[in-house]
Prior knowledge:
Layout: H1 2-60, H2 95-109, E1 118-124, H3 131-140, E2 146-149, H4 155-166, E3 170-173, H5 180-183, H6 187-205, E4 211-212, H7 227-237, E5 240-241, E6 246-247, H8 258-269, E7 274-280, H9 286-301, E8 305-306, H10 321-324
Parallel strand pairs: 1-2, 1-7, 1-8, 2-3, 4-5, 6-7
Helix pairs in contact: 8-9
The structure holds zinc ion.
Zinc ion (ZN) binds next to loops.
Amino acid sequence: MEESTANGLKQERRRRKRITQIRRGILSIFVIWFVFSVGICTSLLIKVHTLEEKMNYLLDNFTVSGKMEEESKQTPGEAGESAYFDLEGGIDGYEEDYDIAQAVNQKDNLAGPGDPHKVYLTFDDGPSNNTAQILDLLKKYQVKATFFVIGREDEESKALYQRIVAEGHTLAMHSYSHKYSALYQSLESFEQDFSRIQNYLYEITGQECLFYRFPGGSSNHVSSTDMKSFISYLNEQGITYFDWNVSSGDATSQAYTPEELVENVMTDVVKYKTSIVLMHDAETKVSTVKALEPMIQALQGIGAEILPIDENTTVVQHIAAANVGKQ
Length: 327
Ligand code: ZN
């Protein structure tokens, strides 16, 4: 009797021990699983955050850094397919209007045999340490161009804004910050940036700027706000915005030689009555400066008239402002 009781107790102890072991096992598995999950989640969150920061950095430093692409090599004839600037392909929605505007401009703007060519050389992103050299070359050939500038506060830049105006070129706006994420965040942020560059340039030059170029162009795929709301705002301010129909290609990652830049421009200029030529005035755009002299010579060689943008210039817009109206 006593023996069987002792055996029963032994068995009971063994059973409890097993249960305790199983419980511990389950608990350990749970703890390991929990720690593992938290670890994975944390590392994913860190990765997402880092990527977000990198993306914002990339968006904000397109051509200002000079190392990345901004305004792409888009020409009306190749609109859409050649959209080089397609970081976030999903955020477009302008394709349709873009094509319509292109078709209208394109048809009226095609040069027939014997038609004169009006060429507007435009330089984005300046002033830079190349501006003076660009201005010297333009002076040498007695040619006027258009500078779509951004806000720079150093004394040299201030003198360059003044020199651009004094030498008869068109000083135009290209946003103050050129930071895509801030500029295109909302209509309010765009308005603030716009007022800042407009007032700043007026303060320095005493001249009101009447023309604007959107960083990345009006057909950019980066803005999270509908570009039409910005266009409508500019319409209301009496500001005409310009895109381009001829690109030198100096904004693309491909390192074109000066000769290739000239060739890119000349190939397209002959097609149009009015050519708005996209180039960049930025520290790293050395090829652009080298291409300028042979480009002017080639343009003058075909009898093209090189002009600064003014109120009589045929507008070239990827989204037709006239169809957008005012707010
Ligand atoms: Zn730019």
